[in-house]
Every structure is written in C-alpha cells, then in structure tokens.
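Subject: PRD domain-containing protein structure
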Amino acid sequence: MNVKIIRVLNTNAVVSVDSQGRELIMTGPGIGFKKRKGENIDQSLVDKTYHLENKEESKRLQEVVKEISEEYLGIADRVVKEAKKEKLEIRDSLYVTLTDHINSAVARYREGIALKNMMKIDIRKFYPKEYQVGMHAIEWIKEQTGEDLGDDEAAFIAMHIVSAELNAQNIIDVNQITELINTVLQIVRIHFKIDLNEESISYERFLTHLKFFAARVFDHMEYEDTMQEIYKVMVEQNKNAFSGVKKIAEYIKKQYNYKLTIDEQLYLLIHIKRILDEQTK
C-alpha cells in the first residue's frame, strides 16, 4: 500500500496519515528531499514513526520539527519510552517541550554557556526516577552529538518530565511544586520532631502523593469531598497525626489561599500516620 505525504516538514521529516486517518510524523535521511504533498513516501527511507494522541500537541511537534534536527526528536522519544518503562504517566507535551529543550541546551553548550540548576539536589531527591531518566538522556545526547551536558542538565530534563506528569505549564511550576513539597516535609519533621526515613516505602508513597497534591494547590483544583464519615473516624482515632495535617492546612491556606478539602486532609492523614507508625516500630 502506498503511503502519501500530506506535509513536508524538512529534508528528513514528513507527515502522513495511517489507515485510521491519524497523522504520523515520519523521519529518515532524505525522506522529504525534493518531495511534495501527495507524493508517495519511499518506505525504505523511513527510520522512525511518531504518533501523538493529542492532535494539538501533534501540530505543535510538527512546527518544532520543521526548525529542529530530527535527531533531537529521536532522543526525546527515547526519554518518553524510558519514562513509561519506569511507570511514569506522562503527556504527549513532553515530545514538544523536550525536543525544543534539547536543541537549545546543545546550542547553548556549544556557545560555552552551561547553566547551573539551583534545584538539582531537590530534583534528585524528590524525583529520583525522573532524574535517572534525565541522566540516561545525557548519555544519549553525548552519543548523538559528542557533547556531555552534565548532571545539571539531567535535572532540567527531569523537570520537563515532571512537568509532563503533572500537566504543569512550565518549569517555574515545577520549582514551586518542589518548594511546597520541601516545606510540607519540613513541617512534618519539625512538628513531630522526627527524622524521615527517605529509604522507606511510606516516605516514597508520601512523596508521590505530595507531587500531585502540590500540583492541585497551584492549579486551585479541588477534590470533591466523598469521605466525610471515614474522615470523622480517622481524625478521632489519630489526633496526634491529624495535628500535623492541621499545621500543613494552615500553612497552605495562609501562603497560597487554598483551603484543603476533607478528602485531601484525609489522604495526608493516612500518609502521616504510616510514617509515624513506622517511626514507632
């Protein structure tokens, strides 16, 4: 079956449609060279095929690929696949933001500009899976371009992955989210006078919860309260743990003008109770 070109992006990238009418970006050396809309694609030249579920993101990616080497899209694709292997739920937007970011980072590096990532320690600590994928990306970039962008850049790539997980608008959102996570953990440490065991499962679960909880605070998204009865019982039975929840709720109301719902307080209570039970053991 002949596959037609519906759009030429550059010498090495074209757009086609599959049998279901979905747009595909196809890349390969010379695949778009002197080609026009309506002509058949030489299948022997196809190196990679990309399909984004989100039509808007697909259009944005096509615009990016017009201007940027498809090798950076290839690296972004490896990052997406690696992130999914790590069970990270990321959105199609990562293809767009990361392809563009890698292009800029390599260009900056070649001009002798290496940016320091002030959040690197926190990123490595709070988003270990994302940071690990970022480190792999640095290896792939070096393989492809010969440039070693270093671990500061790995942290920037991790921030893009987190942004795609949380549907955050930009890296600034990830900074704010990370700062809020830091503060909540600090409140728990100081209020209960404990050292958190960062190797424990309960800490890891709490951290995962806080990522998405913090994103909701900045988006001003609220859960619908569905667990009033359980909440009453849990608060009554766990007054010590709930005192920490109250501290967190007061801080967030004062700092971000966001009132925690009953459901959100309950989830925080459950996680804090686990951590305190673990400390007791």
